[in-house]
């Protein structure tokens, strides 16, 4: 892309022919490009589709360390952005670049407006709304550990040390109530064994997608998820599912025999003890 020098001169004129473009690069490498112009534009070899179904708020920028923000709202397009893909998390942490061009003379270059990552995505029946978080957002993240009674490691990660494969099973769905609740009558693990665990589908429309397990009920063979799977679950879909951990010291000791790697502080007094005068 050329510099915005020629475009800057155009912007100082009395009449302008300016369009806004935004390019979204998902973490899986797929690129989606849109423009608010009434016809497709080609910039640096990328075709920016005329997306009349989306609107954006004004771009806010400050010299302080406040997080620059921008909201995007648009209609679902089966060839581009779909509700199922959003709910599947395919758009999480996507990188967004927004810039302006002179649609009558693309060769004048671009004027960069914003670059950041998609934040919270809210999906309705026919439209979506999301926020674009500026690069300063990364400075707002907490760094370091917090003292608390619960373990702050994830089951099976390097800090936990548990070999997750030893607590992972495979199976197939035998009947379906909804995309969030289904049964596997072959499962025999104890009540609650998979609570807070993770299920990953290995076939079907949700192949490769994962979701946290809310509850496992042995008596009914029912698996309930925290959120519904984005695509239709049918009987015969195969999966792998790992045991869950509620982060408590007692669970770490009794279920996983892993107290040496427990990353919580169960004996640090909390605010309840301070309020009760127990210190």
Keywords, please?
279 residues, mainly beta, nine-stranded mixed beta sheet, seven-stranded antiparallel beta sheet, 4 helices, elongated
Task: Give a short summary of the structure.
The chain is mainly β and 279 residues long.
Descriptive overview:
This protein has 279 residues and is mainly β. Helices cover 8% and strands 33% of the residues. It contains 4 helices and 16 strands. It has helices at 5-11, 83-87, 249-254, 271-275; strands at residues 18-25, 31-35, 41-43, 46-50, 54-56, 69-75, 95-102, 110-123, 127-134, 168-172, 175-176, 181-183, 198-201, 210-217, 222-225, 238-242. Strands 3-4-2-1-7-8-9-6-5 form a 9-stranded mixed sheet. Strands 10-16-13-14-15-12-11 form a 7-stranded antiparallel sheet, with no helix packed on it. A hairpin with a 4-residue loop joins β11 and β12. The longest helix is centred in the N-terminal third of the chain and has 7 residues, at 5-11. It is elongated. The model has no long low-confidence stretch (mean pLDDT 82).
């Amino acid at each position: 892309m050329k510099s915005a020098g020629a475009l800057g001169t155009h912007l100082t004129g009395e009449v302008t022919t300016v369009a806004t473009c935004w390019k979204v690069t998902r973490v899986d490498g797929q690129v989606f490009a849109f423009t608010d112009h009434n016809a497709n534009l080609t910039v640096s070899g990328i075709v920016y589709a005329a997306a009349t179904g989306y609107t954006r708020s004004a771009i806010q920028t400050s010299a302080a360390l406040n997080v620059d923000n921008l909201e995007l709202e648009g209609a679902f397009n089966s060839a581009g952005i779909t509700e199922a893909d959003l709910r599947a998390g395919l758009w999480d942490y996507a990188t967004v670049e927004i810039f302006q061009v002179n649609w009558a003379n693309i060769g004048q270059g671009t004027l960069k407006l914003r670059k950041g990552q998609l934040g919270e995505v809210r999906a309705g029946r026919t439209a979506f709304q999301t926020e674009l978080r500026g690069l300063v957002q990364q400075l707002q993240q907490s760094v370091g550990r917090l003292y608390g009674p619960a373990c702050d490691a994830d089951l099976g990660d390097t800090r936990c040390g548990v070999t997750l494969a030893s607590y992972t099973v495979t199976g197939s769905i035998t009947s379906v109530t909804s995309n969030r609740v289904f049964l596997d009558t072959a499962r025999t693990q104890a009540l609650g064994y998979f609570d807070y665990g993770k299920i990953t589908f290995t076939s079907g429309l949700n192949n490769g997608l994962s979701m946290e397990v809310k509850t496992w009920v042995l008596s009914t063979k029912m698996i309930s998820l925290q959120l519904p799977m984005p695509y239709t679950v049918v009987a015969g879909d195969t999966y792998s599912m790992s045991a869950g951990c509620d982060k408590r010291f007692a669970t770490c000791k009794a279920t996983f025999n892993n107290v040496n790697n427990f990353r919580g502080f169960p004996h640090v007094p909390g605010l309840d003890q301070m309020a009760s005068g127990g210190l």
